[in-house]
Each structure stands twice: as C-alpha cells, then as structure tokens.
Amino acid sequence: MAVRDLNAGHAPAGSPPRIGGWVWVATASPWGGLFSASPFIIIFLLALVNHWDALSQSAQHSMFGLQWLASLLTAAAMWCFTFWTLRLMLRRSLRFPKIFILWLLAGVLLALKAFAFSPITDQLALHQLYWPLLAAALGVPYIKRSQRVKHTFIQP
User: Fold this and answer.
1) Helix (H), strand (E) at residue 148
2) 128 closest CA partner among 116, 115, 118
C-alpha cells in the first residue's frame, strides 16, 4: 500500500471504503456511552455485591435491591447492545445502519422511562432526555440518506 493512499484517505483498490467523515461523528454517541457506562456498571455491581445482605434483609430493602438489580441488568444489556453495534460498525456490516437506528431508539426509550418512572426531578429527567433525542434527530436522517454510509457498509 502506498503512502499516498494512506495520506489521501482512500482505500486500496479492491477493498471496501474506509469508515470516515461524518460517520465517526454520528457514532460518537455510542462510543461515549460505552466508555461512560463501563465504570458505572462496575460501580453498580460492586455496590450491589457489598450491600446485598443489608438490602435483602427487610421487604422494603428487598424491593430496593431488586430495583438496583434491574437497573444493573438494564445497563449491562445496553452496554452489550452498544458494544455489538460498534462491532458491526468496525466490521462495516450491512446490518449496521439498521442496528444503529435501533440503538438510537433504545436510548430514547430508556430516557423516556427515566422521565416517566424514576424518582428524579423533571428538570434532571429532561436533561437526560436531550442527548438521546438530539442523537436520534441528527443520526437517523444521516444514516438513512447518506451516500457515504451506503457505500461504506456493504459487507454482509
């Protein structure tokens, strides 16, 4: 491979186009989510393990422990879904655009769940809802209409 090809940002002849341009910007949200959720899950898991005896002793604490466990499982499932979505992107899979749109929808639904059911202030819930809505509002049209996305994700 010639140095000219690396500097110009062109893929070698016969290989699929490289991931580049606005595709990296569109996928900044899953990358950020993956890196920010990892320590959160570890802290959540450590807190649950360290305080499980105290949480499971009474009925009120048992319900609180189940809520923590449900939150941990939800966060872990979203982390796995995010990892899989990014893996599809890096492999330039044909499935990536559809899965990425589903990932954006899952983020919006989780933010709506927090807005509706969490015991937090409405201002904080709205603040948590802004980023997934912004990512979906900008990401979905770009992924669906971009020629670069159509040419980059061609492998099955």
Assistant:
1) helix 147-152
2) 115
For 48-116, the DSSP string reads HHHTHHHHTSSHHHHHHHHHHHHHHHHHHHHHHHHHHHHHHHHTTBTTHHHHHHHHHHHHHHHHHHHHH
Question: Mean pLDDT for each consecutive 10-residue tract of the chain (156 residues)?
Answer: 47 67 82 87 81 61 69 89 93 91 93 80 83 90 88 70
Q: Do 85 and 100 touch, CB atoms closer than 8 A?
A: yes
- Residue 54 structure tokens: 């105290």
Give exposure, 138-149, as e/b (b: 16+ Cβ within 10 Å).
ebbeebeebeeb
| Nearest residue to 74 (alpha-carbon basis) of 105, 107, 121, 104 | 107
